[in-house]
Specification:
By secondary structure, this protein is an alpha/beta fold. Helices cover 29% and strands 17% of the residues. The structure holds alpha-D-glucopyranose (GLC) and calcium ion (CA). The site of alpha-D-glucopyranose (GLC) has 9 residues, from loops.
Length: 555
């Protein structure tokens, strides 16, 4: 396998709105990020991914962009951005931008032109269709945020397609002018010196010629998946993007590709595919849904092991994995896959980190994960801000499919707002995030879980992450070793090995809150312990693993 810097890097995702406010308006901003670069450098990450910082009316917190070459007013100015980039680079940190080009905001100049008339030069930048004879939408597709995927526009009496909110009309990638605009804009950012892109829902950019009705699911709407996901021209478009932009710079690129299979991932991110460096697959974070994505249950460890191991082994030598437990669209990892009760929060957060960071792929840390930040104890609906969560409550409960009692625990468990509460810097009232009123509540547990406290405690989750990142720099086997799962049938233990030449790692992670026996393979009798979340001295024969214990042995 080719060795490259981005395979050896660790990425840290910043959700700018919730990272650090610098001017007291309750909203995180670019100067806030700049003020925290030393913290990120000290943690040991290599690359920062900024969730969208572009001009946006914020219907979907910046994922609805009205100007790709301007900064969101609340986040600062282009000068602030340039300073952030320069300050990051001077510390050896790279910055990747979120590229949201499946859709724009309906307030983008292209769409404002497009909706004006059927013969406007920008008409064909978006996907317009006539109503059916009875005036209804062109097909039965539902949008990802609830309701129909089509919105009727009075002006020209046609519908436009929006796979997300009605304020996020889908771009028409069939139109070469659209592609050229996007590539020119990307090139402009590359010229500025940014280091790569995370490509939002990039697997949806190509739609089939015909847009037929989809199979109707629980929502009452048809599924657009078969006609939009990994559509007919997606690889052609990405190869064109690669040729015209990506290949001309030394970048790190990752595609968000919901619904991606191993075979499809090899097309997007194969070693010689000339498309992207890697993709985000979502199988391991999607196995728990009861009501589409919503559930109040924990996924089984067997499911996690099966999916994650399949990705590890099937891409080996052929394509590169991305590794993540959470992001701005997922609940907090420790609450979801670990155990956020005070007695177990730290050990289980460290165990999850071990389990992920010893795998092959580029690890992504979502802000606050390195502190073991937890889900938020929402008490009422008015504490939520996320369009998906609010619409889901409306669609499932207010329209009567599920009772409040059934849906509420699911919302608490899975809402994206769990990840979007502000970063917890210290134990002050707003966790050091803002001097003003935060746009979304700070988790009251910032009194105990915060960066300041963890930085001064050598046994903290924070310092454990630092050690893991340092190990990845020190041992090539962590980056390039071959993965093998042990004990596939075990319900509580996630155990695997990595092998490179005559070196071998044994990674042992207990997902159980009880103590459990485990037989250490004899070949590790004389091993070295690289890291452990308890003090593991005993390394031969049958040992008793403590709750959520994790350790890594090396021979
Ligand atoms: C991606 C983003 C998510 C956003 C959606 C629409 O899934 O990660 O936050 O809502 O795309 O842009
Ligand atoms: Ca601010």
């Amino acid at each position: 396998m080719k060795k490259t810097w981005w395979k050896e890097s660790v990425v840290y995702q910043i959700y700018p709105r919730s990272f650090q406010d610098s001017n007291g308006d309750g909203i995180g901003d670019l100067n806030g990020i700049t003020s925290r670069l030393d913290y990120l450098k000290y943690l040991g990450v290599d690359v920062l991914w900024l969730s969208p910082v572009y001009q946006s009316p914020n219907d979907d917190n910046g994922y609805d962009i009205s100007d790709y070459q301007d900064i969101m007013k609340e986040f600062g100015t282009m000068e602030d951005f340039d300073r952030l980039l320069a300050e990051a680079h001077s510390r050896g940190l790279k910055i990747i931008m979120d590229l949201v080009v499946n859709h724009t905001s309906d307030e983008h100049a292209w769409f404002m032109e497009s909706r004006k008339s059927k013969d406007n030069p920008y008409r064909d930048y978006y996907i317009w269709r006539d109503p059916k004879e009875d005036g209804s939408a062109p097909n039965n597709w539902g949008s990802c945020f609830g309701g129909s995927a089509w919105k009727y526009d009075e002006e020209t009496q046609m519908y436009f397609l929006h796979l997300f909110s009605p304020k996020q009309p889908d771009l028409n990638w069939r139109n070469p002018a659209v592609r050229q605009e996007v590539f020119t804009m990307m090139d402009w950012w590359c010229q500025k010196g940014i280091d790569g892109f995370r490509m939002d829902v990039i697997s949806l950019i190509s739609k089939t010629d015909e847009l037929p009705d989809g199979v109707v699911g629980g929502s009452g709407y048809g599924d657009f998946g078969p006609y939009c996901t990994h559509g007919p021209h997606v690889h052609e478009y990405l190869k064109e993007m690669n040729e015209k932009v990506l290949s001309r710079y030394d970048l790190i690129t990752v595609g968000e590709t919901a619904g991606v299979t191993v075979e499809e991932a090899k097309k997007y991110a194969g070693e010689d595919a000339h498309e992207l460096n890697m993709v985000f697959q979502f199988e391991h974070v999607e196995g728990d849904g009861k009501y589409r994505k919503w559930t109040d249950e924990k996924v089984s460890l067997k499911y996690l092991k099966e999916t994650m191991s399949r990705w590890q082994t099937s891409l080996y030598g052929q394509a590169w994995n991305s590794l993540f437990w959470d992001n701005h669209d997922q609940p907090r990892a420790v609450s979801r896959f670990g155990d956020d009760r005070p007695a177990f929060r730290e050990v289980s957060a460290k165990m999850l980190a071990t389990c992920l960071h010893m795998m092959q792929g580029t690890p992504y840390i979502y802000q606050g994960e390195e502190l073991g930040m937890t889900n938020y104890p929402f008490q009422s609906l008015d504490e939520f801000r996320d369009i998906e969560s609010l619409n889901a409550y409306r669609d499932w409960v207010e329209q009567g499919t599920l009772s409040h009692e059934v849906f509420w625990p699911c919302l608490l468990r899975k809402s994206r707002d769990n990840a979007r509460t502000p970063m917890q810097w210290d134990s002050s009232a707003n966790g050091g995030f803002t001097e003003g009123t935060p746009w979304i509540n700070v988790n009251p547990n910032c009194a105990v879980i915060n960066a300041e406290a963890e930085m001064s405690d050598p046994n903290s989750v924070f310092h454990y992450y630092r050690r893991l990142l340092a190990l990845r720099k020190q041992y090539e086997i962590i980056v390039y070793g071959k993965y093998e799962l042990l004990l596939p049938e075990d319900d509580s233990l996630f155990v695997y090995t990595r092998t490179l030449g005559d070196q071998k790692l044994l990674v042992v992670c207990s997902f159980a809150e009880d103590s459990l026996p485990f037989e250490i393979p004899s070949e590790f009798a004389d091993s070295q312990c690289l890291i452990s979340n308890y003090d593991r001295n005993d390394r031969t024969g049958e040992v008793i693993l403590k709750p959520y214990e994790a350790f890594v042995l090396k021979i």
